[in-house]
């Protein structure tokens, strides 16, 4: 990442996993919301998490972001426990947090301004992030003038602009129609290919999970624990439409569906 703070030692750390949940559980009062979870996420991996509503998927992401602390165990990030907000994380939630009074460009510049990047660098990084998500020409538009997919792309640009080590994505495309989702999948696959970053992506959509993932984790009901991890051995680079006609695609969905056991 090119952030001036929060960067991680490059040489020694290369073989360390990106994230290591060790017996991590979370409580709210007397109520165990999640865990214990034991799970290792490798660097550069695209990990997708599925599981029943309320099992603790967002809670798991919050541990990595440092917005929550575990009740038991720990979350190791790049070799050290997460304590406080984790600056190496780019977090995209299903909610639209674009600031309505700022332009598209203003929204994308924000994380760089928070991090006190030099002005000239802010302008060029914001321009290149908007280019990458196909929003060139919309720099001066306001969020209310954009479609749902374009807003979602602003959120992605606002995250990739500071090149996080990890992208946490919590049902980012849940509100989009099927065509736009397919387009966003294509964009995410491109983004993944062009970076060394690690992705942890939460969804309820099994086809989305298999399309994007190197590995899918199925969580059990609350308090969610890891029930199954499934390697998705489908070729990369992936084409969103082609991948779904791969003969193995349907088998993966069936395995995940059976593991979810929602009946
Ligand atoms: N801040 C909080 N205070 C109290 N309880 C909470 C809090 N955040 C989450 N919970 C509870 O913890 C459990 C796990 O929540 P979480 O949001 O992680 O579930 P989830 O798997 O992301 O669900 P969904 O698929 O519906 O988004 C839920 O029962 C939820 O009500
Ligand atoms: Mg959630």
Number of helices: 8
> Helical proportion?
25-40%
Low-confidence stretches: 1-13
What is the C-alpha radius of gyration, as a whole number of Å?
18 Å
How much of the polypeptide forms β-strand, as a percent range?
15-25%
Query: Which class do the helix and strand fractions yield?
Result: alpha/beta
How would you characterize the largest beta sheet? 6 strands, mixed
Describe this structure in words.
- By secondary structure, the protein is an alpha/beta fold.
- It contains 8 helices and 10 strands.
- It has a domain of 125 residues: Rossmann fold, CATH 3.40.50.
- The strands form 2 sheets. The chain has a 6-stranded mixed sheet with strand order 6-7-8-3-9-10, sandwiched between helices.
- α2 packs parallel to α4 and α6 packs across α8.
- The N terminus is likely disordered.
- It binds adenosine-5'-triphosphate and magnesium ion.
- The site of adenosine-5'-triphosphate (ATP) has 12 residues, from β2 and α1.
């Amino acid at each position: 990442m090119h952030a001036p703070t929060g960067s991680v030692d490059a040489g020694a750390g290369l073989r360390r996993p990106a994230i290591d949940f060790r017996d991590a559980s979370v409580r709210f009062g007397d109520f165990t919301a999640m865990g214990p979870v034991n799970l290792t996420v490798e660097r550069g991996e695209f990990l997708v998490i599925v599981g029943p509503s309320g099992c603790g998927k967002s809670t798991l992401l919050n541990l990595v972001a440092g917005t929550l602390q575990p009740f038991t165990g720990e979350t190791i990030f790049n070799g050290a426990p997460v304590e406080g907000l984790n600056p190496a994380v780019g977090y995209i939630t299903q909610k639209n947090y674009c600031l309505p009074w700022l332009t598209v460009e203003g929204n994308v510049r924000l994380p760089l301004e928070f991090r006190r990047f030099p002005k000239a660098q802010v302008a060029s990084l914001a321009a290149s992030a908007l280019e990458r998500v196909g929003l060139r020409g919309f720099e001066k538009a306001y969020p209310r003038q954009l479609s749902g997919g374009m807003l979602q792309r602003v959120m992605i640009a606002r995250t990739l602009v500071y090149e996080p080590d990890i992208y946490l994505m919590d049902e980012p495309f849940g509100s989009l129609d099927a065509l736009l989702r397919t387009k966003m999948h294509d964009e995410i696959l491109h983004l993944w290919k062009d970076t060394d970053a690690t992705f942890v992506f939460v969804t309820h959509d099994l086809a989305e999970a298999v399309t994007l993932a190197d590995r899918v984790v199925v969580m059990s009901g609350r308090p969610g624990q890891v029930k199954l991890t499934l390697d998705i051995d489908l070729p990369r680079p992936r084409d969103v439409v082609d991948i779904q006609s791969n003969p193995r695609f349907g088998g993966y969905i069936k395995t995940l569906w059976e593991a979810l056991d929602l009946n």
